[in-house]
Every structure is written in C-alpha cells, then in structure tokens.
Write a structure and sequence with these properties.
By secondary structure, this protein is of the alpha+beta class. It is built from 20 helices and 23 strands. The chain is about 50% helix and about 20% strand. A hairpin with a 6-residue loop joins β4 and β5. The radius of gyration is 38 Å and the shape is elongated. About 5% of the residues have low confidence.
Length: about 725
C-alpha cells in the first residue's frame, strides 16, 4: 500500500475521533469564551458605576465645601445666597438651603426672601458621612427630570441646616456617552427605586419608568450580576448590572443575546476553521510530501502562542493560501490589540495625572484661603495694638513739654507708622476681601512696598526702579494691586534661579478706538515688571494667565499668581499682558486707566474749625479693653462726653436706657465677638434710632460696611482723623 494511500487511510482513521475532539474543544472554548466575556462585562459595568459615583462625588465635594461656608454656618443666609448664586450659575444647577426640619429657606434660582414652595426632593433628616442622593423627580420649574444631592450643615456637631444641589438627569447621559459603548449595546442608570435616570437609546420614552417585575426582583436581591431579561423596548438581552457603592444607584449594560452569542461563537468559529484547515491540509498534502504537512501547522501554532502571550505577531509565510490568510488575520489582530492596549494605557495615565493635578490644586487653594484668613486675623489684632499705641503716644505728646521726651515720642510714633504699613502689607495675603477700589498713586504704592519686596527677593536678584516723578493716579483696590505686584515679582524671582535683574517701571500709553486689547480709548498707565530670567516658550506664555496653570512640579506651585494679576487688571477696567522669549527674559505689564487728580479734602481748614465740646455724647463700643482705655480719654480730651460698651448687646442696652442722657454719636469697632458685630449693630441702630450718626472703625473685616453707607476709619487712626470724623457726624445731626 502506498504512502499516499496510507496517509489517506490515516486521515480517515483519525477523522472520527478528531470530530469528537473538535466538539469537545468547541464546548470548552465556548465555556471559556463565555466566562471571559461575562467577567469583562461585569468589570465594565462596575467601572461605569464607579464613573457615576465619581461624577456625583465631585459635585458632593463642592456641596460639602459650601456646607462649611462661614456665611451659612453663621446664619448669614443673604450673603450665602449671593455667593451660592455665583457658584451655581456656571454649573447650571440650583442650590437650596433647608432648615433642620427640611423646610426650604432659600433657592438660588429665586430672589432671596421670596416665599418658597416645598421642593419635590427633600434631604434625609440625619447626619450622614456618605452622599445623600435623591431619587429621580420632575423639576417643577421646567418639567424636566432631575435629581439632587444633599448635605447637612453642622455647627458644634449639630445639624442646623441642610444644603441641596439640583442637577438635570441629562448630566448622567453624558457620563454614559463617555464610555464609548457599541451602538447596539444599551446603557442604563437607575436610581435607588430602580427608576430609569439616564439611557443611551430612546431616553425620552423611558426616563422616569421603573424596571420590569422579574428584573426588579433580581436587582433587589443582588448588588451585581447578570440576568436574561427583556428591555422596555421589547428586545431580548443579557443584562449586566452593578450597584454603585456611594450613591446606591444601579448601572445596567444590556447586550442583545444574538450579538453576544455571535461574539462568543466568533472564537469558536476560529477554532473550528483551524481544525477544518488542518484536516484539509492533511488530506491534500497526503498526495504530496508527508513531511511538509506539519510545517505550516507549526508556524500557526507558534503565532497563536505568541498572540496568547501578548507578543507582537508577524504573518509567517507558509506557502499555503489558507494558512497564510489565517496568519495575516492573527497578525492584524495582534497589531489591533497592541494599539488598543497602548491607547488605553495612555488614557489611564493621562486621567490619573489630571486627577492628581486637580487634587493638588484644590489642596493649594484651600491652603491659600486658610493663609488669607490667618493673616487677616493677625492684622486685625495688631491694628488694635497699634491703635492703643497711636492714641497713647499722641496723648503723651500733648501732655509732655520735655524736648527729649518729645523726640523719644516722635521716634515711637515713626515705629508705629512702620508697624501700620507692615500690617497693611500683611493683609495683601488675605484673598477674602471685597473690592475696595479708590484713587491711588502707583508710584507711591510701589515705593511703599520696598521692605516687602526686599524681604521676598533673594540677594542674588537685583531690584531696580524706573519710576518717573509725578502723580501716577488710577482707581483700584490698593491691597489687590500690591498682591499683583508681589505675584509678578515672585514669578520673576522663580525665573532667575541663578540671579539676575528685576526692574519695576511706569510708563504712559494711549489706546485708540478698536485697540487690540478691546479696551475703551483713553490714557492708561503701564506698570511693568521685567526680568532677565530664562523666559517662556510661546506655548507656555499663551497659558500663563490661566488659573492653576504652572510649569512647576506637583506641590511646588499653584498657578494662581499670574491668574490673580490678570484678574486684578480686568477688575480694574484694564488688561494684563505678557511678552517673553526663551533665554531673553519676561516682561509682564498691567494696563490701568489713568485717573484725573481728585480734589483733596481741606484737612487743614477742617482741623481749624472749633470742636463741639460739652454738648455731644459719644457711645464708644469696642471689645478690646486697651483700645477703650486710650480712646475714651482721647474723646474726653477732644471735649466729648463718653459712654463705653464692650459689645453690641451692651451698646443697645445703653441706647434703650430711658433714664440716661441721649447719645449723639455711635462710634463702634466692626470685628467683635457675640452674635452681632459692628456692622450688625450699626444696621440695628440705623433702623431703631435713625437720627443717631454712626462711625465705624476696623483693623480688618471680610464684610464691606461701605456698601451699607457707613463711614469707616481704618485702625490705627490718629486724633486729627478721629476729631474730623466726629465733627462731621455731629454737624450732620445738628444740620
């Protein structure tokens, strides 16, 4: 019998057991493929659930931060309404404050003080550490579907209010769209009651509907799994579901059963095709050379093993069309798998890096806010001390006739003046300030920062001024202007690690109509800070003014410095510009509108007018005993009768006393302990006693009393300033 015949009989002999083996292998491959597909889909569903929780957690973090707002915890709902409205506007959401019983107090979508209806979603009236996410509800304003996040507001460990933030359900549809699911797959987000919140297909017909009975029972019994079900559209699917841990919402990814079966059978078909090809090659090559039968199979085996190990596969040349085609398919599959793996790795790395940068920026922003509050408090306490010293030294100077003592007192007064300047520069770091724009001379402001800039710059950086004589007047917030100059100087310092020259200069410029800055035509002052550092590339310079953009490593900078410079310039009706070249240094400029010189008050003439003595009674209110001890004698020396109070409650009691002389002027500090500060006291007195003039004083405050029409003296003030202010108040009442 010939080899060809024997080979044919051999093929026929092994054909029957081969088919049995193929059936068994097909079953095993199907089981393995199904297991892999099921595990992959479970992981995908869980990942989408994590993405939903992450999106909700981002807004819950914003809500938690707002729940610690001083205005909310202190009961200042009007201020909180204004600030919350500014925050809610770019987020396209509404913020609601409830009392401890769940009654709405304010809604950023309505004017403050307007009566509010009971909203469709209320907070859980318990203190919770995790997210409080409402079920889906219909927004009464526009009729759209929405959901809400709630957070308790705590004071001394007790719940005083609840804070809610409402979002349209369409936000979660965007989260589903970001997952890039195939078109025939169905992604669904359901709330705690298993009501559809978002859906990738035909959402308008099914959002707001509850899951069907059998499927609902399965969802209630297990947090995650897979079940055969029928969609609300009537399509038979295999549904993979996972319940989000934090929100309690359920994510469902449904795949048509036919498509899933086809996906599973694809690998089985590949195995069967391989077996058939092997059999066909074996029969064909039995008529040729027997030893050539195993070579193509060996090459395919090696390629398949390499593909299984995740190695790149190149298409081997076997000399047989069928096996060559299979080899090319394996090679193409290998390339696609490697490209997909590389893309996914890059996306994951980029997402992790972005999350880390955002987290670090948030932490730095919180540190800067804490620094601002700390420096503001320190400035307030030091200004109270300087107030006592200022008045005490002036009284001592008035009573002393010894020339040597007067020289010593003058030296002490100069030291107090330097201390006053340092505390005002210290307040530069306090970011929580309202706009206090006034006319200022930029030349005097920059020269007044010499000590602060000298301490901030190392000895290797040479500071030079180019400030022409004359008045360089503009209207701006002095402290914000000082902070902008300091930020530009610190940016220049960091650009010159080996040292260099920093130049601060002033120059005039005139802008015509249609200028490139889109500013009104007119005269402007250009405040420039130039350095000889390493400079910036065009790409970096284009983003330098963006908030949180920085070229420094994580933890070494926030990117808020130049953003503050740009924000200050725009707030002052001007513009910030940057000109930089790599290796040629950087020039940052502030274009601020030039202001005409305003008429200065006739201080000398006012000081010569006689004091109102023995006829006016001043109620002095200050919580600092040392300030009261020096200011009260000073008022008496000016000819006033003085009553003192240590807080707002005592001052109101004195005003209400019927058996005491009437008060002609209220002179109060702003920052005081108790449930009412100086601004609150002034507002109460203006309501109850509209004929009593009010004069306020402060060393630091986050409130803006000028907005309420009160005159404010900045501590420390001297006798002449106080005398003039009291005289104007008394004359106003007399008039």
């Amino acid at each position: 019998m010939s080899i060809r015949s024997r080979l044919i009989w051999l093929v026929l002999a092994v054909l029957a057991p081969t088919l049995v083996f193929a059936a068994l292998a097909t079953f095993l491959v199907y089981q393995s493929q199904w297991k892999r597909v099921s595990q992959s889909m479970q992981e995908t569903t869980h990942a989408v659930a994590l993405a939903v929780d992450r999106d909700l957690a981002r807004y819950d973090a914003i809500l938690a931060t707002m729940a610690m707002s001083p205005g909310l915890t202190n009961g200042d709902l009007s201020t909180f309404h204004r600030r919350a409205s500014q925050l809610a506007r770019p987020l396209w959401t509404g913020i609601v404050v409830y009392d401890a019983e769940g009654i709405p107090l304010l809604d950023t979508r309505r004017p403050y003080g307007e009566p509010l209806p009971m909203p469709p979603s209320l907070p859980s009236i318990i203190t919770r550490s995790q997210m409080d996410v409402s079920p889906l509800f219909t927004d009464p304003v526009d009729g759209s579907y929405a959901f809400a996040l709630h957070r308790p507001v705590l004071r001394d460990g007790k719940v005083i209010n609840y804070l809610g933030m409402e979002f349209p359900a369409s936000r979660l549809a965007a989260t589903l769209a970001e997952q890039g699911m195939p078109k025939r797959w169905l992604g669904v987000v359901m709330d705690q009651r298993h009501v559809v919140v978002a859906r990738t297909r035909n959402p308008e017909a099914h959002i707001g509907r509850r899951a069907s009975g059998d499927f609902l029972k399965t969802l209630s019994e297990r947090p995650m799994g897979v079940v055969e079900s029928t969609t609300l559209d009537g399509e038979k699917v295999l549904s993979f579901f996972s319940r989000a841990h934090d929100s309690g919402w359920t994510i469902v990814i449904a795949i048509p059963r036919n498509e899933l079966l086809a996906s599973a059978l694809a690998s089985i078909g590949t195995v069967l095709a391989g077996i058939l090809i092997v059999l066909a090659i074996a029969i064909g090559l039995a008529f040729a050379v027997g030893r050539t039968i195993t070579r193509p199979l060996a090459l395919l085996d090696e390629a398949a093993k390499a593909l299984g190990r995740g190695e790149p596969v190149s298409a081997p040349i076997t000399g047989i069309d069928e096996t060559d085609r299979t080899a090319r398919v394996l090679a193409d599959a290998s390339q696609k798998i490697h490209r997909a793996s590389a893309d996914m790795a890059e996306q994951v790395a980029a997402a992790v890096a972005q999350a880390e940068r955002s987290h670090q920026a948030l932490l730095q922003g919180q540190k800067l806010e804490a620094l601002g509050r700390l420096t503001g408090g320190i400035a307030h306490d030091f200004n109270n001390l300087l107030q006592s010293m200022t008045v005490g030294l002036q009284l001592a100077d008035m009573l002393s006739t010894d020339p040597r003592a007067k020289r010593a007192l003058e030296a002490c007064q100069r030291s107090v003046g330097r201390g006053t300047q340092l505390t005002r520069q210290l307040m530069t770091f306090s970011r929580n300030r309202t706009d206090e724009s006034r006319q200022l001379d930029l030349r005097e402001l920059v020269l007044g920062m010499s000590d602060l800039l000298g301490g901030a710059l190392p000895s290797r950086v040479v500071l030079r001024y180019d400030l022409p004589d004359g008045a360089w007047l503009t209207v701006a917030d002095p402290l914000q202007c000082e902070l902008a100059v300091l930020n530009m100087a610190l940016n220049a310092r960091d650009a010159m690690p080996q040292g260099g020259q920093l130049v601060i200069s002033l120059a005039d410029t005139t802008l015509a109509v249609g200028n490139r800055f889109n500013l009104p035509e007119g005269d402007y002052i250009e405040l420039r800070v130039s350095d000889t550092g390493h400079g910036m590339s065009a790409e970096v310079a284009a983003k330098a003014f963006e908030p949180f953009f920085t070229t420094k490593s994580v933890g070494e900078g926030t990117g808020l410095g130049l953003a503050q410079v740009y924000g200050f310039a725009r707030q002052s009706q001007g513009m910030g510009t940057l000109d930089s070249r790599v290796g040629e240094g950087t020039r940052i400029a502030l274009l601020l509108p030039r202001a005409a010189r305003a008429a200065m008050p006739q201080v000398a003439e006012a000081a010569q007018r006689p004091l109102v003595a023995g006829q006016a009674r001043v109620l002095l209110v200050d919580d600092d005993a040392e300030v009261r001890d020096v200011v009260a004698p000073m008022l008496e020396a000016l000819g006033y009768q003085v009553d003192v109070a240590s807080d707002a409650e005592s001052a109101l009691g004195r005003l209400e006393a019927a058996n005491e002389p009437a008060i002609d002027v209220l002179f109060s500090d702003i920052v005081m302990p108790g449930r009412m500060d100086g601004v609150g006291l002034a507002q109460t007195v203006r309501e109850r006693y509209p004929g009593v003039p009010i004069l306020l004083a402060t060393g630091y405050t986050e409130r803006a009393p000028a907005e309420h029409g009160f005159r404010v003296l900045a501590k420390p003030f001297d006798i002449d300033l106080l005398a003039g202010a009291l005289r104007e108040a008394v004359e106003t009442r007399a008039g």
